[in-house]
């Protein structure tokens, strides 16, 4: 029996080649583009590879070249609720979310996969650069394009119903293949910025929805050094844009405190943490670990990887870094690895510096 595969086609080169490979492998492939905005003109345009009317047309043309059926699914309501509103709420709470990760978790591999299964499809195919090995996610062979971090939130069940045909190819190889296949988006640039913020002005977007109430910028002692126009427009680790003058040592954002509308700053040394607690852990590459074990953790997309010990404590994931890290923001994901295999993940809830580490430094 031929497997029925739903290929999510964003309008970019990766998803087009993934769909083409799935069809060439003999699967019964149907392409679908997700309409994520009720007003596509309000989203970024120009070679985005995600979300706009232009991208929908590119996806349809690619499906025609591949020779597969193609549909557009209206997911605007789900996207606004699960991604855009979540993005705003997280910033209002003093956290720094990753909207692309949330979109993968709640739209592409939850809402879309659920609908696909209900319609009789066996799997969803996407153009993410990641591999699956024995039911576990592995990093792509192209380290610069690896997307295992933003898929680290997926459950084992979701992985078992997902196909990632590009994980063994570099991006250059994918583009070359698209050209050979006659797919028009072969040279289309990658998307990077947040698709639902048309002008790229995240602070302005947040101010429109949360206001721009002024408040103090304080140092660690509580001394007021300046004033901000909305605490939600800052993130932990930020140095630029504080407007505190050039006198004295460099200062970085240490915390955002929405309850009293305060941004706290200090030296880089005060950014260092070696204890991280995450909420709602997901284990996809091993059984839940109730005892500490050695692994590695990635704390932001394309960020550095740190050696650590990790274990689950109740509904929390506890991570102890062997060397401290700077600028770790609540709201981001902590994704655990063993070599290049994803073990699990959690959303960072809090961070701290152990007394011993602080004393040594």
Produce the secondary structure layout.
Blueprint: E1 4-8, H1 13-24, E2 28-35, H2 53-66, E3 70-74, H3 76-92, H4 99-118, E4 123-125, E5 130-133, E6 136-139, H5 156-160, E7 162-163, H6 171-181, H7 202-210, E8 215-218, E9 224-228, E10 252-257, E11 262-266, E12 273-283, E13 293-298, E14 305-313, E15 316-325, E16 333-338, E17 341-352, H8 355-360
Parallel strand pairs: 1-2, 1-4, 2-3, 4-7, 8-11
Antiparallel strand pairs: 5-6, 8-9, 10-11, 12-15, 12-17, 13-14, 13-16, 14-15, 16-17
Helix pairs in contact: 1-2, 1-6, 3-4
Organism: Lipingzhangella halophila
Subcellular location: Cytoplasm
Binding site for ATP: 8-15, 34, 127
Brief write-up:
The protein contains eight helices and 17 strands.
Largest sheet: 6 strands, antiparallel, barrel
The 3D shape can be described as: globular
Structural class: alpha/beta
In angstroms, what is the radius of gyration?
22 Å
Instruction: Name the strands of the widest sheet in spatial order.
Output: 12-15-14-13-16-17
Average predicted local confidence, pLDDT:
91
Pfam family, one: tRNA_Me_trans
Domain tRNA-specific 2-thiouridylase MnmA-like C-terminal: 274-348
Family: Belongs to the MnmA/TRMU family.
Binding site for ATP: 8-15, 34, 127
């Amino acid at each position: 029996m031929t497997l029925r595969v739903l290929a999510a086609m964003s309008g970019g080169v990766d998803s087009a080649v993934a769909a083409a490979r799935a069809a060439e492998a003999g699967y019964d492939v149907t392409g679908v583009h997700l309409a994520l905005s009720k007003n596509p003109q309000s989203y970024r345009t120009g070679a985005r590879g995600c979300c706009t009317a232009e991208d929908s047309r590119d996806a349809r043309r690619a499906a025609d070249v591949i020779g597969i059926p193609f549909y557009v699914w209206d997911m605007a309501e789900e996207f606004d609720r699960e991604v855009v509103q979540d993005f705003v709420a997280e910033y209002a709470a003093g956290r720094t979310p990753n909207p692309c990760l949330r979109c993968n978790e709640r739209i592409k591999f939850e809402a879309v996969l659920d609908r696909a299964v209900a319609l009789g499809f066996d799997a969803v195919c996407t153009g993410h650069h990641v591999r699956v090995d024995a039911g576990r996610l592995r990093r792509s062979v192209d380290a610069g394009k690896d997307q295992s971090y933003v898929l680290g939130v997926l459950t084992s069940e979701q992985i078992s119903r997902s196909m990632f045909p590009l994980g063994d190819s570099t991006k250059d190889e994918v583009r070359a293949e698209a050209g050979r296949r006659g797919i028009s988006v072969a040279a289309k640039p990658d998307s990077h910025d947040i698709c639902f913020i048309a002008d790229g002005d995240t602070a302005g977007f947040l101010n429109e929805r949360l206001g721009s109430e002024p408040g103090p910028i304080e140092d660690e002692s509580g001394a007021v050094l300046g004033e901000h126009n909305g605490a939600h427009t800052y993130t932990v680790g930020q140095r630029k844009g504080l407007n505190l003058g050039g006198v004295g040592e460099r200062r970085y954002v240490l915390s955002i405190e929405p309850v009293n509308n305060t941004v706290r700053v200090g030296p880089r040394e005060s950014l260092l943490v070696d204890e991280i607690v995450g909420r709602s852990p997901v284990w996809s590459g091993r059984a839940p670990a109730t005892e500490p074990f050695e692994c590695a953790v990635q704390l932001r997309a394309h960020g550095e990887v740190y050696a650590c010990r990790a274990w689950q404590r109740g509904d929390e994931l506890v991570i102890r870094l062997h060397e401290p890290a700077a600028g770790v923001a609540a709201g981001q994901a902590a994704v655990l690895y063993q070599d290049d295999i994803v073990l699990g993940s959690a959303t960072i809830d809090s961070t701290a510096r152990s007394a011993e580490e602080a004393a040594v430094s």
